[in-house]
Amino acid sequence: MGGGSTDSNHTDTLHEDSCFNEDFHFPSSPPTPRDSRGLQDKDNSVNEKNELDFGEVSEESVATSSAADSVIGERKRLGIYQEILQSYDALKIDSKNLKEAKEKILSYRPGTWTEKAKGLKLCDYDVPETTCLLLVGPSGSGKSSLINRISKVFDEDKFAPARAQVSYNSIRGNGTCFLREYMIPRDSNSICLYDTRSLSDDSHENNKMLKNWMTKGVRHGELVARGMDDKRLSKNLKLKGDKKGFFSSKSRKVNYVICVLNGLSVLNVIENAGGALEEWYIQQIVSTFNCPFLSFKDDKPVLVLTHGDLLSLSDRARVRAYLGELLGIPPTKQIFDIPDCDDLVTESAIVGMLRYTLEHADGNFPQKSNVMNKIHKISLSLFMILLILAIGFAIGLKQNNSVTYVTQQQAPQPHAGSREVHDTRPNVEGPINEPNIECPNLEVPKKEPKIKRPKLKVPKKEAKIEWHKIPHIW
């Protein structure tokens, strides 16, 4: 990202090189292998000394280790600084590629970059109608100016007036006291930026305010009052807040957070380190950025630096490197330098920042509650089916055993003292060579003799009786 325009690239590079030597002081050359070998020989010889010199040896080794760590740290800072400078050159893309990148933002709909993890579909997530991005930062950080800069990039009317009210003098003005919603672009309902009131000097009050926004949502036109406001300001804000018709019908849930800092203020902290005011400013930055309510699990907010047009390119790189080390975030990927300039580099930085925030917002959409109920119902139904099958199998096995037992009880019993032998051989025609199997202990029961009984002869014809020869019967 250049300073004022992209035509002075060569001049900026020369200026950057000269400022680089002034800003960072590195050793002229790293330790040579001979020096390292000498230090090792010295340590080996010291180890052979008695225990009385052990304290002196420890101090020397600690000093040597500290010097080596310092050199490594300076080299690391140098590499980060050079990487940041290269990132500015990477933003110098042509107008054709910038137009394609802008079209992706303009065609964005909530859930466009939602990852279908765990086999879930987009309909399984609680996707809002509008992705809400919340801007937070200290007084004079440039939140309203950033909204105007973003709106100007995506609106077709380049001569449209500024949408957000900017405080010309933050000391005399009160800044933004009512939450304001700005759709990007104006005629869309996919992206909205929320301008908020600046952070106060009380960290406890800031955490309370941030918690309210992140848990209960934000509402267009909502008054943000503080306990530290004087009576006159509180009265004026109350009179403004009593005007009806300014509130929207519903509040919006925040999907991602953008922390905004003034690059010039951070540079003053770097150059005047140790002062009470600078220490307080750093504490406010760290406590706000690390506020647990602003993070979505491990996903921390994105950081935007403003007023970079008042700084040189080398100073802007110094600020990004300092904040990256202070907050533990990559300065070239999560810190965006967006000055108040009209050039392709600034537009490219804005598009990249919005792409980053929207992708992370889509990745933080929660799952629908009915999805979890659906998974629970599926598991319960599967369990009930398996239980019914198990019960049916057990009943069938029990009935089978009962039928077998009854059949065995009704079967005819063999004669006492005899053994019934069943021929289970297959019915095969022809001779079968049976093996001679000897069973010495097997006794074959003897057959009982048959009893001969006399047969009764039945006459075939009836006997003829002569009744006249038997008169005495009558």
Feature tags:
474 residues; alpha/beta; Rossmann fold; six-stranded mixed sheet; elongated; disordered N terminus; P-loop_NTPase; membrane; transmembrane; transmembrane helix
Count of separate DSSP helical elements: 12
Supply the CATH class of the domain at 97-107 and 128-364. Alpha Beta
- Total E-strand runs: 6
For the CA atoms, what is the radius of gyration? 47 Å
In the sheet with the most strands, the strands line up as 2-3-1-4-5-6
Series of secondary-structure elements, N-terminal to C-terminal: HHHHEHEEHHEHHEHEHH
Question: What are the low-pLDDT stretches, counting only 5+ consecutive residues below 50?
Answer: 1-57
Query: What's the end-to-end separation, in Å?
Result: 158 Å
CATH superfamily label of the domain at 97-107 and 128-364? P-loop containing nucleotide triphosphate hydrolases
**Quaternary state of the chains:** single chain
Helix content: 40-55%
